[in-house]
């Protein structure tokens, strides 16, 4: 899958598109990402100046929206649901993310 990865801590210029494996999911929700929040903390993370410090290389992005590819049985979301998800462990700037079920909810219908 394609992902945007920070290769060092020099800011946005260190972001590069790279190929990474699709996340392996066990007890998580696999989401095909359609939109990602781009925010000030992401900028600071690429400079190593945010309270959450990731070591390069890393894929920024904590907020995503997309479609569920797979989910644990009996959960609040299922395959095909349009969802929003929070990824405190980063990784949102990618085609797919695996998120803990409690961090995923059905997208409100009023959001396009």
Give me a quick take on this structure.
It contains one helix and seven strands.
Question: Radius of gyration in whole Å, from Cα?
Answer: 14 Å
Helix/strand order, N-terminal first: EEEHEEEE
Report the end-to-end length measured between terminal Cα atoms.
24 Å
Top-tier CATH class:
Alpha Beta
Q: Could you please say which CATH topology applies here?
A: Quinone Oxidoreductase, Chain A, domain 1
Structural description of this entry:
The strands form 2 sheets. The protein has a 5-stranded antiparallel β-sheet with strand order 6-3-4-5-7, with no helix packed on it. Strands 1-2 form a two-stranded antiparallel sheet. The protein is elongated, with a radius of gyration of 14 Å. A hairpin with an 8-residue loop joins strand 1 (about 1-5) and strand 2 (about 15-20). It has a single domain (about 1-105), classed as Alpha-Beta Complex (Quinone Oxidoreductase, Chain A, domain 1), CATH 3.90.180. The protein has 1 helix and 7 strands, in the order βββαββββ. By secondary structure, the chain is mainly β. The model has no long low-confidence stretch (mean pLDDT about 95).
